[in-house]
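Weekly puzzle thread! Below is a chain. First person to post its structure in token form gets bragging rights.
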Amino acid sequence: MVEKFITQDFQHTILIVDDMPENLTVLGKLLQPSYRVRAAVSGPRALQIAASEPKPDLILLDVMMPEMDGYAVLERLRKDASTQDIPVIFVTALDTAEDEQRGLDCGAVDYITKPLQPAIVLARIRTHLELKQARDWLKDQNAFLEAEVNRRLSENLLVQEVSIHALARLAEVRDPETGNHLRRTQEYVRVLAKQLQSHPRFSAFLSDHTIDLMARSAPLHDIGKVGIPDHILLKPGKLTSEEWTVMKTHAQLGSEAIEQAERDAEKPVKFLMLAKEITRWHHEKWDGSGYPDGLAGEAIPVSARLMALADVFDALINRRVYKPQMPFEQALEIIAASRGSQFDPDVADAFLAIFDQFQAIAKRYRDNEPAS
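Winning reply:
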């Protein structure tokens, strides 16, 4: 039984499949001068060879074979990820237009009828090998380009991340007691958004991409504090009403700085839009008693609602120049009591559901004095 022709190691490998050994011999002699030839006398054996090394670059497949015909072999080839891209040419005595149409509909790239004409067989093989080579080249180029795009995107994201934290540190440097506040609030916002992602009120907005952008922009929430005088920002005690009025301007100062960056951009940048929302409105309250614009309810952007809770929680459990730190349980009670007044009720409920995650984040990124 003829199963394999061993020939010189040429660039392309062709698998020929036919249950008649004499047909394999004819095709083998025709192809051996130019190609590495492998052969199989049955469908199952053809599938084994097609999946082994060296992989065939092209398969010449007979249709009428016992046990497993050519159509069944082609179907199996197309279902296997390792063989699905190998071009298949049917070589058969079935010579009607309907037979050819069926073969092409099944996924064959060409259809050659017997008796074979050597010049036509060689020409068809050469054409489809060149097409496969071109497809493989394009696939490799696309893979390279995709890898390069991903590499550059990663670099850009890293630069953006570093730039964000560098800007945010400007405010933090002037208020050193905030410590890891930026990292903690960033992670609070992320887990809170993930918890709300399946909620019908938030699912349309909180895509994975939006959550990522929102978490990355969160560290900018207090960037406007760079414009607050030290005697107010660092005052170790309660602010006067006049000082508090000045302190509250940090939300507007920060949003105006980001808005200027938006104007400098050539096209709208969603990241900047979210950063501006968070910066300007994270001190707004659900009942409309917040600042700077007195927004209430749904008028407050989702990003700012999440940041508001994250910011308050972190302020409660950490020491500030104007207050001592507070135990986790007491902070929980305060936020629960502010459900529907200071905080969106559903956002507060999400916080209560994942309170253990908030505690874990607080402990992981705690300052010199750990939270209780």
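Puzzle host: Confirmed. Bonus trivia for everyone else. Strands lie at 13-17, 36-40, 58-61, 88-92, 110-113.
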